[in-house]
Amino acid sequence: MHLLIMRHGEAGWHSLDQDRTLTEAGRQQVAQCATEIAKSPWRPEKIWTSPYVRARQTAAIVSEILNCPVEEKSFITPEDDPGLCLNALLENKHSPLMLVSHMPLVGALSTLLVDGHRRGIPFMTAQAVVLDMPVVGPGCADLKTQFLP
Q1: Residues 6+ apart with CB under 8 A from 39
Q2: CA distance 142 to 111
Q3: Strands 46-49, 128-132: parallel, antiparallel or unpaired by DSSP?
Q4: 51-77 pLDDT, tens digit each
Q5: CB distance 55 to 49 below 8 Å
Q6: How many Å apart are CA 90 and CA 69, to the nearest integer?
Q7: Which of 6, 27, 81, 97 is the most buried (most CB within 10 A)?
Q8: How far is CA 92 from CA 111, 134, 135, 137, in A?
Q9: What's the CA gap between 93 and 111, in Å, rounded?
């Protein structure tokens, strides 16, 4: 399975974290990154997105550029346990699959899949990585490439 993990684009501030929206610079970052993904062999079959506004906006931009369906998932918000996502990945039939979420989840999930721990690596806004997982599980993925805005 190939998994693309992407952090949402740059977002402005709002009193409620889940209502933060992308800035114009954030929209441009996402479009730039999605355009590079479109040229790659890892175009996703499906996009999973967090229900937070900035992640849904990011997924919508990527979806339009890649002509790919989006499905909202409640278990990929910033503070969710990456183990919940791992459980869902075990049931997933789509590959490549893209996941659009937030820090610290994207960092924790990436290190869980590559290194088998949850300490997390930093992600820039609109950054995406591609993981190759012959078997879905902790420590079973290899980092193939990354896309930076």
Answers
A1: none
A2: 10
A3: unpaired
A4: 999 999 999 999 999 999 999 999 999
A5: yes
A6: 20
A7: 6
A8: 19, 13, 12, 13
A9: 22
